[in-house]
Amino acid sequence: MPLAPEIRLFLAEDAILFWARLEAEAGRRLPPPFWASAWIGGQALARYVLDNPAVFAGRRVLDLASGSGLVAIAAAIAGAREVTANDIDPYAIAAIEMNARVNHVAVRTRWGDLLDGESDGADVVLAGDILYSPALAERALPFLSRASERGALVFVGDPDRGHLPHDWLEAVASYQVPMAGAPEDAQIERTAVLTPRGSPS
């Protein structure tokens, strides 16, 4: 991972080809293996977590739509008391567990869609690259807002794919995007970590 080289992940060299192979083996259509790439918004969020351990140490962290587990692993390395990595894809859950083991950290996994509920008492909610489509942003932003209103710290890693509410979120860090990364990020030059305006980050 260019922005978080200290974290080791099992990733696909070519996520599209890997997806085709998974579907061939399963004999049915499968959701895209988002967990098989380290998306640049997640990389930025992981970098921010690693560089600011005092914000996360001793806290209960929820990593929403965790994918490969990159951000959850960063939170565990930063000293979070408890880290829960959530995803709707059971393959992602398996990848998170494997990636946590290879990085020698404890990460709990939680499978399923949490967006219509609450953040389960987390002190910090992390969301790397969850706003990549209008439909998902429409569901994720209210969840993040509820978490913030409840008193949780909320951090979003996003390269501004067009669905960021700039009237609510403000950048706390910005990173130049390295050349290597997921194919989805090929045209992106900068990425940021954002938090709700007025949040005590």
TrEMBL record:
GO cellular component terms given for this protein: ribosome
Arranged from A to Z, the UniProt key words for this protein are:
Methyltransferase, Ribonucleoprotein, Ribosomal protein, Transferase
Which SUPFAM superfamilies does the record cross-reference, listed alphabetically? Answer: S-adenosyl-L-methionine-dependent methyltransferases
Q: Does the keyword Methyltransferase apply?
A: yes
Biological process per Gene Ontology, one example term? methylation
Q: Where does the signal sequence lie?
A: none
Question: What terms describe the molecular function in GO for this protein?
Answer: methyltransferase activity
Top-rank taxon of the source lineage equals Bacteria
* Classification via InterPro entries: Ribosomal_L11_MeTrfase_PrmA, SAM-dependent_MTases_sf
Q: What is this protein called?
A: 50S ribosomal protein L11 methyltransferase
